[in-house]
Amino acid sequence: MLKKYIIYPVALLVLGTIFTGCFPEKSETALIYNGPVVAEIKNFTLGQQASVLTAKGVSTTAGTQTDSTRTVMLNTRGTDSVLVQLVGPQSSAPIDVNFSVRSTSTAVEGTNYAFVPAGLRKVTFAPNTSLAYIRLNLVANSLTTVGDQRTVIIDLLSDGQVKPNPNFNKFIVTLRR
């Protein structure tokens, strides 16, 4: 009987040591991003409740939101923001990432929308942060026909110290009346 009390705990200890020896030394290190520092555009409204989005002037019709697109109601939204995320270690100094508007965009800057600050083509990550926003002021009633729409196509540029993620370097904001 005494052998049972000694053998079973010793066997469990040996088996436990063998099983935990099979795990990587630090499994949490597998979750740490070790690639190059990149910037990417995200649709931060994707997945929010339809009633909340509708109240904020974001269209919730099927197909109007993806990872890289959003349709906003021109006369309701007022100001729209496009989230730019830094992937990699944060910096103690500000980081600028330049962007451009594609010539194939159908919305006209100054007529349908304006960047804040006006004309600026860069987004700045404040020190020790990973998020920044490209802000667009929408010009109400700049589209006169209900159902009419125009697009603003934004591309992150690779001319700075941080390169864009090739999978998330473009965002399309559709302005709908």
Task: Characterize the structure shown.
The protein is of the alpha+beta class and 177 residues long. The chain has a single domain, classed as CalX-beta domain (Immunoglobulin-like, Sandwich), CATH 2.60.40.2030. It is built from three helices and eleven strands; from the N terminus they run H-E-H-E-E-H-E-E-E-E-E-E-E-E. A six-stranded mixed β-sheet has the order 2-3-11-9-5-7. A five-stranded mixed β-sheet has the order 6-8-4-1-10. A hairpin with a 2-residue loop joins strand 2 and strand 3. The longest helix has 20 residues. It is elongated, with a radius of gyration of 25 Å. The N and C termini lie far apart (84 Å).
Structural class: alpha+beta
Number of strands: 11
Count of discrete structural domains: 1
Give the number of helices.
3
Q: Give me the strand/helix succession.
A: HEHEEHEEEEEEEE
What CATH first level would be assigned?
Mainly Beta
CATH topology: Immunoglobulin-like
Gyration radius (Cα, Å) is 25 Å
| Strand line-up across the major sheet | 2-3-11-9-5-7
Please report the distance between the alpha carbons of the first and last residues: 84 Å
Which regions have little confidence, pLDDT < 50, spanning 5+ residues?
A: none
CATH superfamily: CalX-beta domain
What is the mean predicted local confidence, pLDDT? 86
